[in-house]
Amino acid sequence: MDDDAEIIAEFLVESHENLDQLDRDLVALEQDPGSRDLLSSIFRTIHTIKGTSGFLALGRLEQLTHVGENLLSKLRDGEMLLTRELTGTLLVMVDAVRALLAVIEETGGDADTTVDIVSVMDALTAAMEAPAEPAQAPASAAPAQVAAPVAPIEPAVLTEPAQSDAPAVPVQPTAPANETPDDEPRRGVADSSVRVDVDLLDDLVQLVGELVLTRNQILQRTEGREDVELLRAAQRLDLVASELQEGIMATRMQPIGQVWSKMPRIVRDLANQLGREVDLDMQGHDTELDRSLLEALRDPLTHLVRNALDHGIQTPAERIAQGKPAKGNLHLKASHESGQVVVEISDDGRGIDPVKIAEAAVRRGVITHEAAARMDPREIVNLVFHAGFSTAEAVTNVSGRGVGMDVVRTNIERIGGTVDITTRKGEGTTVRVRIPLTLAIIPALIVAQADERYAIPQANLVELVKIEGEALTRDIEHLAGAPVLRLRGHLLPLVSLGVVLGEEQAQSDALTVIVVQADDIRFGLCVDDVHDTQEIVVKPIGRQLKSLGMYAGATIMGDGRVSLILDVPGLARDRNLTAVPTAVVATQTATDDTTALLVMEISSGRRAAVPIVEVSRLEEFDAAQVEPSGLEEVVQYRDGILPLIRLASTIGLPETPGEPSRLNVVVHEFGDPASPHRVGIVIDRVLDVVETTVTRSDVGRRPGVFGSAVVQERVTDLVDLSAVINRIGVGA
Amino acid sequence: MSTTSTSSLHCTFRVAGLDFGVAVEDVQEVLRHQEMTPVPRSPEAVRGLINLRGQIVIALDLRLRLGLPARAADERPMNVIVRNRGEVVSLLVDDIGDVIDTSEHRLEPVPSTVPLTIQGAVRGVLSLPDSILLVLDPDRAVDVPTAPDATGGTP
C-alpha cells in the first residue's frame, strides 16, 4: 500500500510537470498549427499519462486520456487540422485531467465523480466526428486576432478561447476542482518539491565543504583571542556553517525506495527464469541516504538479491521436500542505526554450509587446512567475499562467476561501508550491509607521521594504545620478523605507517598504536603521534595516484595544508594482510596465565580490578542523565535503560564524598549474547589496563570481592561482578 | 588558418634549459612556488598536492616527467596550472616566459633525436627566430607512467 502511494506521488509530480508543458505546447501550437514536433510532444504527454494511469488502475483518468489521445493522434497524423475550437477542447481536457489529478492526490483514487469527465469526453468525440477541414484557413491565418470564426462544432465548448491563458473558464468539469473541499492552503505535491540539477547540488556540496574548511581555519585562528566580538562572530559562523552543511547534505538525501522500486521486477523475472516462487517483502523505503551512496549501492544490492534467488531460495519441490512452504521469502529491510544505514537482505532458503565453504576455500587455495580448522563457522562463511571464490556448481548467467561477492564487498568498502553474512544451514541467509550516511564529510582521526599529518576515517577506528617502557619489550614480539602486539590476550599484527610510506624502520622508546579494522582484518597501525578528531571534507586525488591503494583521498586542514586520507583496507592489502583472517589473529595466547585487568579507582583512591573480558564498554554519563527508577538509579543508554550500580558502596566501601558532574561507568554485559543484560558499574575513574599474572590472596574477601592481589605494586580488590550484580538484584 | 588545432597564443616556460609552450586555452593560471604535501610512494614525477583555493591539485615536476635532470634543492619551481579533461594539474617548471603569438609559424614534427620521454609529451615544435619551442600536449603531459613501485614494498 505504501508502495502504491509512493508511485502515485511520483506520478502526480511528473504529470503536473507534463501538463504545464502541455499547456505551453497547446498555446504554441495555436500559433503554429502545422508543427508536427509540438503535436508529437503533446501526444506523447497524454499517452504517458494514459499509460501510467492504466498501470495504476486509475480507470477514469485512463478513459479520459484515451479519448484525448485519439483526437491527438488524428491531429498528429494530419487527418485533422487544429483549430481554435479544437485547442479549446483540448485545453478543457487538460483541465479535466488536472482536476482528476487533484482528486487522486486527495483520495488516492479517481473514483470521485465530482469531476465530470463524460461531457469532456463527449466534446472530444464530437470534435473528432465533425468535419474539421473548413476551419483550417481562419485558424492558421489569424491566430492573434480576437474575432474567432464561428465555430462549426460544439459552440458550447469554447466560450472565450481567445483568453488562452485562462483555460479554467470553459466548461463545468473544472469548476468542482476549483472548489476542492478543504480550504486549508495545503501545498500540493507539485508545489512542495522542486527538481534541481544534480550538478548544482554537487557544486553546493563542494562549496559547503569549502565553507566548513574555512570555518575550521577561522576557529583555529580565533582560539585564545581576546576580541569578544570576533569570537562571537566565529561562533556564529561555526553554527551557521554546521547547519548549512546539514541542510545541503539533506538535499542530497534520497530514499532507498528508488533502488527498491526496481527489485520486484528483477525478482519476478529471475524467479521465472530459475523456476522459483518468491514472495518479496520490502521495508524501510523511506530510509534516506546520500545520492552518491545510493548510486554506488545499486549494483551490489541487485547482486545480493540475485544471489539470494540463485543460491539461497530452493525450487518449490525442494522446499516442500524439506517441509517448507513452496514459496520462498525474500526480505529487504533498510533502517538507520547510529549514524549508519543498515540494509538487510534475508532469505529463508538453504543457507550456507560452512563445511562446503571451507572445503572450497581450501581447494582454491584461499586458506590452508590448518587455518580452516581454526576458524569459526561465521568466519568461514565470510570467506565467500574473497576474490575468486565461488561454490556454484555450474556457472549460470545469474551468478556464480566467482567475482560477485568479491566485487560486492569492494564496492561497499569503497563507500566506507561493511558487509557481513549470517546464515543457518537449511534455514536461510541474511546479508547485512552497513554504510555511512554521507560520503563527502566524515569524522576522522588526525595522526602525524614524519612531518606530515594523515587522516584515518573514524569508521575504521577501534582504539588507541600507547605502549612504553618495559611493555614495549614485553608485549611486542616478532614472528619471523613481523611485529605483533599482545593486546588483552589477543595477537594483533602491527604495521608501521612509516614503513608503509617508504620510510626506514625507526626505533623508539614508545609506540603509539591505532587499532583499526576493515571488515575481517584488524591490525595495529603504528604512528609517530596522534592529534585530534576532526570533520574532514573528502576530496578526490588525481587519477595519477589511483594506483596507490593506501590513500582514500585528501583533505584540507585548518591551516590550509593538504593531508592525505588513509584507506585502511588499502593499507591491509598493501601489507598483504588480507590472507590473515581474524581467527588466526585472535588465537588466544593461552600458554601463560596472565589475565588482562581493568584497574579502577573507587572510594577516595582505593583500587579495584575486573578482568577486561567482563568489560564491554567504558562510558561517561552526565550526572544529570541519571534518573531514579524505583530504588535504582538508571540512565538511558542505546535505546534502553541501563541500571547503575555504585561499586564502592556495593562492596562495602564508602563512596567518594561529593557528587561528580560526570559519571565514569563500566558497562558489563551478561546473559544471552544475542540480547544481553547490561549494567553500568559506577566508578571514580579508570586507572589502567594491565596484563599480569594474578596471585590472589584471600585478604579482603567479602561479598562482591574475590579477594585481593598486588597489581602494579599496589593492593587491589578483585571484584566479583556476578556477586555484585546479584547483591543488587539487577536483571535477575 | 593553421592546419592543426593548436592555438596561436602560447604560454612559454623553461625547463632544464629547454623552451616549452602550451596553448593558452589549456592554462588556467600561473603561480609562484606553493607549499606542497608530499605523497609517499607516488610516481617520482608527482611532487605533491597543492591546495588551490580549496581544490586539491597534483603537482607534476616536468623535469622528472620528461626524464630531464632534477632541479637543485634550493631552486623553487613555478606552477603552471593546466586544465585537462576536467582535471586541474600543476606543472612545475623552472621559469615562466612570455605569452607569444605563434600564428606565423607552423607546427613541425619533433626531431627524432629528441629523447622519447619528451617526444611522448609534445605535440610538435615551433621554430621561432631565437629559439625552438616545444609545444606540450597537455593530454599526455599530465599523465604519469605508473612505474612499478620503487619504494617501501615488502621485501
Given as residue ranges, the uncertain stretches of chain B (5+ residues, pLDDT < 50) are 1-6, 147-155
Shape assignment of chain A: elongated
Helix content of chain A: 25-40%
**Strand content range of chain B:** 35-45%
> The CATH topology of chain B, please?
OB fold (Dihydrolipoamide Acetyltransferase, E2P)
Radius of gyration of chain A: 35 Å
CATH superfamily of the largest domain in chain A: Histidine kinase-like ATPase, C-terminal domain
The biggest sheet of chain B amounts to: 6 strands, mixed
Describe the 3D structure.
The complex is a heterodimer of chains A (732) and B (155). By secondary structure, chain A is of the alpha+beta class. Chain A has 5 domains: 1-129, Up-down Bundle (Four Helix Bundle (Hemerythrin (Met), subunit A)); 198-251, Helix Hairpins; 254-391 and 404-436, 2-Layer Sandwich (Heat Shock Protein 90), CATH 3.30.565; 441-575, CheA-289, Domain 4 (OB fold (Dihydrolipoamide Acetyltransferase, E2P)); 594-728, Beta Barrel (OB fold (Dihydrolipoamide Acetyltransferase, E2P)). Helix content of chain A is 38%, strand content 27%. In chain A, the strands form 6 sheets. Chain A has a 6-stranded mixed beta sheet. A 6-stranded mixed beta sheet of chain A has the order 21-25-26-24-23-22. In chain A, a hairpin with a 2-residue loop joins β22 (627-629) and β23. The longest helix of chain A is centred in the first third of the chain and has 30 residues, at 2-31. Chain A is elongated and about 110 Å long. Mean pLDDT of chain A is 77; it is low at 132-183, 392-403 and 579-592. Chain B has 155 residues and is mostly beta strands. Chain B has one domain (9-142): OB fold (Dihydrolipoamide Acetyltransferase, E2P), CATH 2.40.50. In chain B, 8% of the residues lie in helices and 43% in strands. Chain B has helices at residues 62-65, 116-119, 138-141, and strands at residues 9-15, 18-23, 27-31, 46-52, 55-61, 78-84, 87-93, 95-101, 107-108, 122-127, 132-136. In chain B, the strands form 2 sheets. Chain B has a 6-stranded mixed beta sheet with strand order 8-1-2-11-10-9. A 5-stranded mixed beta sheet of chain B has the order 3-6-7-5-4. In chain B, β1 (9-15) and β2 (18-23) form a beta hairpin. The A-B interface holds A 209-210, 213, 452, 499-503, 539-545, 547-548, 550-551, 554, 556, 560-564, 575-576 and B 35-43, 46, 48-51, 54-58, 60, 87, 89, 142-144, 146, 151-152, 154. Chain A: Its main location: membrane. Chain A: Residues 161-190 are annotated as: Disordered. Chain A: It is an enzyme of class 2 (transferase). Chain A: It catalyses: ATP + protein L-histidine = ADP + protein N-phospho-L-histidine. Chain A: It holds the Pfam family CheW.
